[in-house]
Every structure is written in structure tokens, then in C-alpha cells.
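Below is the data:
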Amino acid sequence: EELAPELVEQLEKNFPGDIQQADYDIGIPGDFTDLLTDYAGRVYTTQHRYDEFFGLLLDIAETFPRDFWNDYFNSSNYHFVQTYQVQSKYTADDVLKVLRAAREKHPNLENNSYFRHFEKILLDREEMDRYVDRKRLETWDEIVRMSREKGVKVILQNYPVAYKGANRIIREVAKKHGLPVIDNRAFFGGLMEKEGRTKYMEDDDHLKPVGNRLLAKNVYQALIDADVFGD
């Protein structure tokens, strides 16, 4: 509400097509936020940076829980539902915690159809996630058993990005079977914190050529350290 009046003239110059096409009145805070969210959505999704975009939307949903599910953030909650289904960083349980905290603080959200619909999507997804995790663990148990029967040494490696569910399962398998893990996540996390994510990542979860070269070197060095190749 404080920003909109000052920036209306500037935004009208920068986004004339968007404003006319969507019939925005950006003097109204709700339309103002819709315009910015739609623009951010195009920037992030065309670069396949779904995890980052969803993280921003989740922050809005957590900070303004009552307003997020009404017309004030109409575009934001639309993108929130759509982007959740293609991102890979946040689990259903992560998002359900935000929704439950919002409903506890604002009980009237129970009457909001958008809120209830998305909560159902998450509950269904949570059940599916539990099934997938169970099958992952069963499959890994079989892989480890068969490998050991054949005398094959098993060394695990995790993803260099925040595949939260998959990386968690890899840690569980390693602990259960006493297996070493090549920690690509920690390796790239340190690099990206110092030099920026875009230097190494093409999008949310694909490395650029420079990232692939570093990944290969990291894995190779870990295999040397584990004396996999012997003399």
C-alpha cells in the first residue's frame, strides 16, 4: 500500500503490455502484487527455476497467511499451486506445516475453497510421498543385498541440489547398511554460497558443463580416497 502509489507511473512505463492485457489497475495493491508476481513467474519458470520461485511464494504464504488466499494475492496463490507440482525441493509435509500454522492463526481459512483444495492436493501428495519413500527403501535394500552377494562394493552419492526426499533416503540407506556417501550436495552448496548458484546450475536441478566437470572430479577423488581401484 505504501509502495504502489509511488511506483505506478514507473510500472506503467515498464509493463504497458502486461497492464493492458490483464486489465490491471496497479494503483490497487492487489493488482500491483499480481503484476509483479506474474512477471516474476515468467522470469523464474522460463529458466526452469521452479524451486526458487516456489520458495519465494511460500515465504509470502507464511508471512501473509490470511491475505494470501484471497484476491489480495490472487496471482500468487495461483502460481503457488501450479509451481508446487513441478518443483522438487519442498515436500508436501513442508508446505502442510505452513498451511496448518496459517489455519491455526486464522480459522476462517477453513471456509476458503482455494485453501481447502490445495490442502487436499498436499494430503494426497503426502500419502504418495510415503509410498514412494517406502518403495525406494525396499529397492535399495535389494540393490545392496545383490551387490554384496556378488562382491560388489557399494558407494552412494547424493544429488548436488536440494532433492530433499531423495537425498534423505540416501542418508537413511547409508546409515542402515554402513555405506559411504559422496556428498555432492555439501560440495556444491559451498561453491554456490561463495560464487552464486547460476555459475554452476542451468536451472533448478541440472548442472552446467562446468558443474558436471566438477561433479566428475569430486566423485573420482572420493573413489580414490576409498581405494576402490586398488593398486
